[in-house]
Design brief:
Blueprint lengths: L4 E5 L3 H13 L3 E6 L2 H6 L6 E4 L9 H12 L2 E6 L14 E4 L4 H15 L11 E3 L5 E2 L2
Parallel strand pairs: 1-2, 1-3, 3-4, 4-5
Antiparallel strand pairs: 5-6, 6-7
Length: about 140
């Protein structure tokens, strides 16, 4: 299986390191943990997929980070947040949102889905993942 480089944008270090651990167990390569916009964008060029929380050390910058990663850097972005309503109709260019908290299995399923989407594979989304439509609008299918 080909590896995939995954960025974790999360300010709670214990959550971030657990996500990174699961990514490594799955055989993917974590490119780093970013707790705010500056470090997330500094790591953008190394990432293929990013898991992005909304509320970070520098405030509610996750939506902006996700938009920039997706639209400027071509990163496959999946939001993970306890506040999915903050995304409103969604963010153009991003996949969707996984409501937190998540189990390790839900995280694995979401990461597998994001990587498959990155590779343009046709896969069914995990049950708890809320997808955005092609325009970035939330679709509750």
């Amino acid at each position: 299986m080909m590896t995939c480089r995954i960025l974790v944008v999360e300010d709670e270090i214990f959550v971030a390191t657990e996500i990174e651990h699961v990514i490594e167990e799955m055989g993917f390569t974590p490119v780093g943990i970013a707790a705010e916009q500056r470090s997330a964008l500094a790591l953008a060029s190394a990432a293929e997929v990013a898991l992005v929380d909304l509320n970070l050390r520098d405030g509610a910058t996750g939506i902006t980070i996700g938009r920039i990663l997706a639209q400027t850097h071509g990163v496959t972005v999946l939001f993970m947040t306890a506040n999915p309503a903050q995304l409103g109709e969604g963010v153009p260019g991003t996949i969707g949102v996984l409501p937190k908290p998540v189990t390790d299995q839900e995280l694995r399923d979401a990461v597998s889905y994001a990587v498959a989407r990155r590779r343009a594979a046709e896969v069914a989304p995990p049950r708890r993942l809320h997808l955005f439509g092609p325009s970035g609008a939330l679709s509750l299918s």
